[in-house]
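Morning. Coffee machine broken again, so started the prediction first thing and wrote up yesterday's gels while waiting. Chain of 372 residues, entered below exactly as on the submission form.
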Amino acid sequence: MATITQTQTTTATESPPLKLTLAYKEEIHEEYKFSAYLPVYDTKTSFPPLKPFEFNDRGLVANKEKPNLFSKEAAPDLKVTKLTPVIGTEIRGLQLSQLNDRQKDELALLIAERGVVVFRGQDFKDIGVEKQKEFGRYFGPLHIHPVGAHVKDNLELHNIYLGPDNEYRNRRRGNRLTTTGYHSDVSYERQPPGITILTLLSVPPTGGDTAWESQTAAYARLSPPIQALLDNLRAEHSGFPQAEGARRDGLFVRREPIKTEHPIVRIHPATGQKALFVNPGFTKRIIGLRDEESEALLKLLFQHITFGQDFQVRVKWEEGTVALWDNRVTSHTAISDYNVHEPQEGLRHGFRITTLAERPRGVGGLESRWNE
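Came back before lunch.
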C-alpha cells in the first residue's frame, strides 16, 4: 500500500509558507493523544552539507563506577538488569527527564559499554519537544535526516511510523523474505551518529520489537588474522541508494547524498574498545580490494552481524519505554512482525533523536576520508 499523503500550507512568522505533506490519514487519528507527533514531510527546506565540528564525548568525563547514575539514595526504586551478558541493560525506577549532568555523563559511558540501555516507565514522551531536544543535545549536535518523515516544525525528530494508513517502512523492503535489516544510523555521514534516543508513543501489544547487536563482540569473535586484515582497511558508506530510493518514491531530499570511507574497525573514544564499523544498510565496498574480494569479505561480516544471536539482544516495547544506543558500537533493526490491518495489533509510532559524534578513528590512527 502506498504512503497516504495530503498537502497543506502553513505560514510561519516572517518566513515563506512551508509545504507539509502529511504521511498519515487525519480521520483515523482524531482522538490520538500524540497527534502533534504524527509524520509529515517538509517539502521545501533544504540543507547544505554538514560541516566539521569539534566533538567531546561526555563519557570521557564520567565516573567509571557510575555512583551518581546508580545512586539508591536518589532513586530508591532503582533496578538495573543486564538483558544479556554481552549487550543491553534495562533500568527501572529512574527518570531520564530528571537526570543531572553527572548522571548524563555516566549514562553516556554506560551506553558505550553496554551498547543499548533501555529505560522503562518513563515520562519522556510527555515533557514536550523542546525538552526532548535539549536532552539529546547534551550528547551531541542533533542530526536532521536527509529524506525521512519528521514531527511538524521539528526536523530533528525523525518519525518512526508503521500503520494501516502508511506502510512505507515495510513496502521499501521490497521482495525480501524478512522485514529485518541491520544498520547503524546514517553511517555515511562524515561524523556519523553517536547516541540515538528512540521513544515509541504507540506500541502494539505484541510484536514490533527492536534488536541490537554488539559490534565490539562481533569484532572480538573474529580470528586474529582476520582482525589484523580489517584493522588496516576502510569501507565506503553511501547515502546515494537511500536518496535515490526516496526520489523514486516521490519524496523530498533535503540534503544531497554523500559517500564516506570509514575505518572498518573503529576505536570508541570513551572506552578504547575496538568495534566493527560496517553494516548491511549503508556499507557498499571495501577500499583497495578487488570487487570479488570486497563482496566476499562484506558477505562474511554481514552474515556474522545478522546471525550472531549470542551477541544480540531483542527488546520488547511497552508503555513508557525509551531506548538509547551508541551507533559506534552497535547495529540494530526493527522487527515488523505484526499485521498493521488488524486493529487489535495496533499502531507502531514514535520518534528518534540522533546525535552526531566524532570523525571515526581506527587502529594506528586510521581516519575516515572523503572527496570534497
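The two ends are 39 Å apart (CA to CA). Going to sketch it on the whiteboard this afternoon.
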